[in-house]
Specification:
The protein has a single domain (6-125), classed as Lambda Exonuclease, Chain A (Alpha-Beta Complex). 35% of the residues lie in helices and 34% in strands. It contains 3 helices and 5 strands, in the order ααβββαββ. The two termini are 23 Å apart. This is GxxExxY protein.
């Protein structure tokens, strides 16, 4: 079975490891965000940092959040610099997907060891 946006996702994950291998563990999230942003841009991708995303309830805007990075208007990246990925982080990215037209989110953790989770929330379920 082919994964949704598999090619783009693979490029992002590969770039995540490149940044991690260069910087290692121990920096603030912002350092990783800036580095990943630069690397993805250098690969010719459209990347937006701190992209505002409105949250609606029954057609009325009730809040907003800012995605760490949005790639090609398609994939939301949530970056962490925690010891390990916890369930709350996974729930956070699923909520982001629920609130947007994006169907794929990547949770990228620049922890003691690099780890990522790929989350899907299809538009036909929204």
């Amino acid at each position: 079975m082919e994964l949704l946006h598999e090619e783009l996702t693979n490029v992002i994950i590969k770039t995540f490891y490149e940044v991690y291998n260069e910087l290692g563990y121990g920096f603030l999230e912002k350092v990783y965000q800036n580095s990943l942003y630069l690397e993805l841009k250098n690969k010719g991708l459209k990347v937006e940092a701190q992209k505002r995303i409105a949250v609606f309830y029954k057609g009325t805007e009730v809040g907003e959040y800012y995605a760490d990075l949005m790639v090609e208007d398609t994939i939301i990246l949530e970056l962490k610099a925690a010891d390990y990925i916890v369930k709350d982080f996974e729930n956070q990215i699923l909520n982001y997907l629920r609130a947007t037209d994006c169907e794929v989110g990547l949770l990228l953790n620049f922890g003691k060891k690099p780890e990522f989770k790929r989350k899907i929330f299809e538009n036909d379920r929204k």
